[in-house]
Write a structure and sequence with these properties.
The complex is a heterodimer of chains A (114) and B (115). In chain A, 0% of the residues lie in helices and 51% in strands. Chain A has 114 residues and is mainly β. Chain A starts with a strand and ends with a strand. In chain B, 0% of the residues lie in helices and 48% in strands. Chain B has strands at 5-7, 10-13, 19-24, 31-37, 44-50, 53-56, 65-68, 75-79, 88-95, 105-106, 110-114. Classes of the chains: A mainly beta (114), B mainly beta (115). Chain A binds chain B through residues 4, 9, 32, 36, 41-46, 49, 51, 90, 92, 94, 97-107, and chain B through 3-4, 31, 33, 35, 40-48, 55-56, 59, 91, 93, 95, 98-109.
Chain lengths: 114, 115
């Protein structure tokens, strides 16, 4: 069975500082990995995804994530936080190439301090 | 173009009642997914359709939950004899096809409250 663990239900950073949101996964087969963002009163939006191509994946809004098989991690980073990045972030895994639905982590609420 | 839409946006019902939640996917998307998001949790997979058929319903919690997609477009999630524990945001997503290369586009959700 697949699972996702997101360390830290809340992360607070200053505007302009590095953003690091942690995600570790468990999967019995090579996984597909995703990061989604959820702004208040909006639907989930895909930030980026890893599908066994390049291990460093670049997404929208300046975010990127690196797949590290040895650490079973897929941490999300952004060099410089912006106030508009304040949102809920979800890491998700799929073993079936997306066909079997996604397994999500509990989410990390990102707070940006001015 | 129009995204995934869900109606109603909010539904309040009493314990024991029957409810239906509707999802209109993006036009042309063959795959449709239902998820449930409880307070403070990530979305939890319920069921997905490829066309008209339910390809995987392993996430439905019990037989009070049922979903249909009779014409391969609009889907309805049906909950019988609702319980307070069913209170959550029910999310629908659609994708052009199944497979990780096909992005799942999510609707805004239906917030269900069972009193």
């Amino acid at each position: 069975a697949q699972s996702v663990t997101q360390l830290g239900s809340h992360v607070s950073v200053s505007e302009g500082a590095l953003v690091l949101l942690r995600c570790n996964y468990s999967s019995s087969v090579p996984p597909y990995l995703f990061w989604y963002v959820q702004y208040p009163n909006q639907g989930l939006q895909l930030l980026l995804k890893y599908t066994s191509a390049a291990t460093l994946v670049k997404g929208i809004n300046g975010f990127e994530a690196e797949f590290k098989k040895s650490e079973t991690s897929f941490h999300l980073t952004k060099p410089s936080a912006h106030m508009s990045d304040a949102a809920e972030y979800f890491c998700a895994v799929s073993e079936g190439g997306g066909a079997d639905g996604l397994t999500f982590g509990k989410g990390t609420h990102l707070i940006i301090q001015p | 173009g129009a995204g995934v839409s869900q109606t109603p946006s909010n539904k309040v019902t009493e314990k024991g009642k029957y409810v239906e939640l509707r999802c209109d996917p993006i036009s042309g998307h063959t795959a449709l997914y239902w998820y449930r998001q409880s307070l403070g949790q990530g979305p939890e997979f319920l069921i997905y359709f490829q066309g008209t058929g339910a390809a995987d319903d392993s996430g439905l919690p019990n037989d009070r939950f049922f979903a249909v997609r009779p014409e391969g477009s609009v889907s309805t999630l049906k909950i019988q004899r609702t319980e307070r524990g069913d209170s959550a945001v029910y999310l629908c997503a659609s994708s052009l096809d199944t497979g990780a290369l096909n992005e799942q586009f999510f609707g805004p959700g239906t917030r269900l409250t069972v009193l």
